[in-house]
Amino acid sequence: MLDELKKLRKNIDVLDKKFIKLITKRLKIVTEIGKIKKKHGLSIHDPIREKKMLSSRCEEAKLNGVSSCLVKDLLKRIMRESYFNENQEGFKKICLNLRPIIIIGGLGKMGQLFNKMLKLSGYKVHILEKNDWHNAKKILNNPMMVIVSIPVLLVKPIILKLSSLPKDCILIDLTSIKHRPLNVMLNVHSGPVLGLHPMFGPECKNLVKQLIIVCHGRYPEKYEWFLEQMRIWGVKLYVVNAIQHDYYMNFIQILRYFITFSYGLNFLEEDVNLKKMLDLSSPIYHIEIAMIGRFFNQNPELYADIMMSSGNNIFFIKRYYKILSKLITILEKKDKEKFIDYFKKIKTWFKSYAKKLSKKSDDILGQLNDNI
Amino acid sequence: MLDELKKLRKNIDVLDKKFIKLITKRLKIVTEIGKIKKKHGLSIHDPIREKKMLSSRCEEAKLNGVSSCLVKDLLKRIMRESYFNENQEGFKKICLNLRPIIIIGGLGKMGQLFNKMLKLSGYKVHILEKNDWHNAKKILNNPMMVIVSIPVLLVKPIILKLSSLPKDCILIDLTSIKHRPLNVMLNVHSGPVLGLHPMFGPECKNLVKQLIIVCHGRYPEKYEWFLEQMRIWGVKLYVVNAIQHDYYMNFIQILRYFITFSYGLNFLEEDVNLKKMLDLSSPIYHIEIAMIGRFFNQNPELYADIMMSSGNNIFFIKRYYKILSKLITILEKKDKEKFIDYFKKIKTWFKSYAKKLSKKSDDILGQLNDNI
Predict the structure, then answer these.
(1) Residues B220 and B275 in one domain
(2) What InterPro entries does the database record attribute to this sequence (chains A, B) (predicted)?
């Protein structure tokens, strides 16, 4: 009886070994593809090929009576690894100009990431760190591009020091706010200016499918090559104006940091038992706790600066705080009617995306559950 | 040149097709395994086998020069599908008593799920719905178990109607609060009493690795078979006392619902453009928006009842609200020192779990990124 089970499990083990062999082969081919892509300056991420490939595999899955969802998830996971493998081959250098790129704050985590990607693409990169300013004239000698990757509060004073860059030098900042830094850059430098906001952490190992928000400054034709270079890295670029960018970041960053911080502070002050809380949690809450923990594992200065960098943030948070107070009143009065009324209005607000978001959250929950 | 790329991509397509064939075979074997497990009453989820299998595959991956993380993720995803396939075979019936099980509220979503699982395990299940109470005496004729699966506000009045159950009948509720319902059950019924809280949505297709919290009521030896039955379904059981359960649910449910609701209300009142917000979002925020959207796609009554069911909730939320106000003061005063001080204290609070949680969040972010 249990021999029967053992036998079947052995069969599964044999299949799984074949599986690993297949993956090994696949990743080797992918390395070859990486070489060709590098040679021809093709982007590491080809969404059209990806979509076509996935949909024909899904068709085949259906013909075999296997869930196409399953096949899609598996292939996507393998592709993530593949992109990483292609990465190792480096990237085609788009701009053949011989002058170097300077990263100010190049030893910070994000600075290091750009440094790595630029070097993988064949550029000469110099770094200008806190203690290098006495030597700045030498380091900043005729660069083709200067990338400012420093804490938000230092952006203005540092950029003000960059008044004598060559006229054709491209000046770029990576701050998570865009309107003011962009204006400072435009005032200080008369050449090409570009604001970027990388929407990922510096711990990213490859940039495929990662989002960088682009706020154009001046002479976009002069830095178009750099956008193309990032596309080759696999980055997804999204262009928006700086004021809109800053407005949306209230939701996407400021409010999230505020809530995450408050959750952490609540845990601390309620002195809850973390082990027990994790034991009692469903996968969704596991991820929430993990994300809160992740936040507090980062640099507090960075978040203090972002949160305190603008009076607008406080203004925005206070508006949100009023909404919380409204909600508390509803709960306190047990005003079920109002609760349901708002609930339905918000549902309507989500309307056209509800189905898509619901599917997405199903996928996520499934994946979370795999990892318990 | 591009012919070269085409050729390699064709090779990949060939491998991927082999891949699908392998998965098809594997799932067929799994169906066979399901039959054996059913026959012998083995749990659909065997964590020891799973762990052993994964670790030897990871070893083999390493030997092949492939990331063991990759192999682990792939096998876990395949196993999720496998559990679903094993599910189809039904489950061994643990309790051979011939009397039926009654689900009060059995047409609600969670009631339906339990109905399905019990029937797949060979039990006779009757349902008692809102409109069946005139017929209750007949339906409630000598049941071996009564499961109360109804909105939280109705739990007390409904349980009060169950005063004449047979002495050996097991009385169970599935509410998301446990202390008071459990007491009501203990007062009304003198036989075995059990409080359960399923930590998953009723849309779950199989219960493997899903968590059900167990609050013992009375005569646990009488309902041990039912706990065993759920283990066979693959459920993970966690025993805690009802008061502790309710305390932790303040964090795991009440506070989350409160914040989720407030986020939605904030979107509504700020009248933000959802499309643009999604375009500008990184994967983490995508998932947050998806989860908020998911919340508002559910039944508002349910959440109103949970939130308003207890004065304790309000008390707890108000304590949290004070923390928010403290945080606002810190931001408004630009009190960086205090900000960093709290930040570090919270980091310390997370201490022993920081690494584990950080790894978990890395995995999650990777997966999220696959799905863009």
Answers:
(1) no
(2) 6-PGluconate_DH-like_C_sf, Chor_mut/prephenate_DH_T, Chorismate_II_sf, CM_dom_sf, CM_II_prokaryot, NAD(P)-bd_dom_sf, PDH_C, PDH_N
